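ok posting inputs for the S-adenosylmethionine job
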Amino acid sequence: MNKHGNFDRQFFKKAWPKGFRTNARSLEATGFDILDIYSVCIGPYANIGHHALEIGPGGGFWSKILLPRFELCWFVDVIPMPENFTSLCGELLDTYNHLWLEHESKQYDLAGVPVGGVDFVWCYGVLCHLSRTARRKYLAAIKKVMRPGAHASIMFADWDRHPVYHMLENPENYAEESPYGWFYDTVEASVKDVEKAGLTVVNSNVFPKARDTLMIIRLED
Ligand SMILES: C[S@@+](CC[C@H](N)C(=O)[O-])C[C@H]1O[C@@H](n2cnc3c(N)ncnc32)[C@H](O)[C@@H]1O
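and the output
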């Protein structure tokens, strides 16, 4: 259990009132390259005839990439569509099909998303804030909504690498947690949870030199 507890809706609303939004520079600072992420983890699964699900879109950085590349995007978050999301994705929202589901605090069941109806799942910067129990619930729900043959690209927080990045920012700070609170696991533990949920790991750690684990997962036909 994280010292901040298992985060609820109030925490996310208070921490990022306008909706947290990743950006290319913050990705770079954590060892990622946005074009690499796009070309390996999103691009190959983009299909204008398919349905995508984004878990925890927040301020919409990834949603802007997803919206024009799928027939329909489901967005599931525990907050109402925030200001940063509407300001960034505004015009796309008029053009591309999307549905925003505001879930209850600490809800992890993807209720409302059609069972077997999703071809691609994207989740970045969300499961790292949820306890292992919550993550396991989410993985079971992700499996439930995926169509057989569908893929998911999911970010997990890595116990081994994350503190090293904190230390690079500030050598005094070999912290296990940022002020916003993270839950860490090893890549092996995350793989175990994914497989236990009945999903196949295609690539357990796409960018081993980056701060976090980006994993590509598949639901077998
Ligand atoms: C750090 S932000 C990441 C936002 C965005 N994915 C990005 O990379 O810029 C975490 C987001 O996850 C959302 N979140 C928290 N708990 C959630 C849950 N149980 N289900 C769905 N989203 C959740 C928060 O409200 C917030 O929008």
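notes: Helices lie at 9-15, 24-29, 34-42, 61-66, 83-95, 132-145, 162-169, 187-196. The pocket of S-adenosylmethionine is lined by residues 12, 19-22, 55-59, 61-62, 76-79, 103, 107-108, 124-126 (CB under 6 Å).
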